[in-house]
Write a structure and sequence with these properties.
mainly alpha; 1 helix; 33 residues; single chain
């Protein structure tokens, strides 16, 4: 269960990073408009 929880944590971290990137891109686009 420890290994699966570690992999799950990595997946959530990757998703969080992608969300942060999309959030930044969206903010810059909104500011440009």
């Amino acid at each position: 269960s420890l290994l699966s929880s570690k992999v799950f944590g990595n997946e959530t971290n990757l998703r969080g990073k992608v969300r942060a990137k999309t959030r930044r891109v969206g903010a810059t686009r909104f500011e440009a408009m």
